[in-house]
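debug: dumping io for the single-chain case to check the tokenizer round-trip. Nothing else runs in this session.
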Amino acid sequence: MIGLMGLVAIVYNARAQEDETYKFIRYDANVLHYDSNAAPMTAFFDRWQRLTETGTGNLNIMHIGGSHVQAGTLPNTIRCRLLQAYSNLVGSRGMVFPYSAAAKCNNPADYRVHCFEHMDLTRCVHKEHAWPLGLCGIAVTASDSLAEVQIVMNEPSVDYASNRVVVLGHSDQEVVPLLRVDDRDIYPSYVDPRTDRFVFNLSRAVDSFAVMLPCKEGEQFTLTGIYLGNRRAGITYSSIGVNGAAVPDYLRCRDFVRDLRLLHPDLVVFGIGINDASGPNFDTAVFRRNYLQLIDSIRTVNPDCAFIFVTNNDSFRKVSRRKYNVNTNGPLVREVFYRLAEETGGAVWDQFEVMGGLKSMDLWRQAKLAQKDRVHFTVAGYRLVGNLFADALMKAFAEYSETLKQSSNQATKQ
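debug: decoded output
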């Protein structure tokens, strides 16, 4: 059997060799930057260590951001890398949202969504919310007796079968959602009106189902999220993303903290910032203050939660039909994240530096790793970024484990 250090080293080196053709990437900078004595990161790695040693418990990770996260490829690449490294520790799929239940709203590829009736969309980026929003920052509202949202797991490399499904949503007319499994309609095992949770405990684990929202005339039901759980030990990696979202948009989600208690994250990966810094009047003081407010809200759920701040990717602004200017706010965001990591005992993954620094997005575009808008990546680009992040995270954990081993050996000798 390959030990933890050997496994991580093999995976890490394989990725580095595969990506050596991209000379503009700074592989030497692909590390997590953090104080090794910081209590939150130490607690997170310690929990991860106990999970790998005992095979019991759960490690809950939440990745939150804007369109980079909603698209799904980036977080799913990280998720699969972690779970493939520990094939016996596949936990729950965690929080998902049926994005494509609304028109022109893109959905992650690792689960398919089918919806046959029109649903209205509310996103946190809207100035006014038609309905109260929760952790997911987005909602779809049904008003038809035949409203149905089908969820089908679509990641062949991971078994995400769930025997506990929690539907988050509310209805002024007290519409109660049903779960359809194998052509059988199932009523909730229990309903918690305080948290707008409809909990379905299933007799067997399933990888596909439909949420039925039977609205009579004049009735509506607003769906704000779906949590997929099971009783297995392992790593649960939930991704929360809304196209165009900035930090203040999540702060305006009324039920953010309430829903976060369902996840109770041990680690939050912050990927919010590209939209905050997209304009010419970016204020670093306001940006930092907003982030501290978001961090405080998360710590009301878990005071020991660890944070990894992902610096903005290099990007450009479109100034005319064919002209783009480099966005010089990237380095400013980077400085704020290093300060936030120091203040919160968190870590920084310096994506900006790893990808090559200022103006490097053009090199990524020429390599077909970034889109023409010079803000978003291609599918191949998102996979590369996800693998680079996973490399840095797993390498940091391997180094932590090796330090524990050396300390244990010294104690034994004494």
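debug: round-trip ok. Residues 1-18 have pLDDT under 50 and may be disordered.
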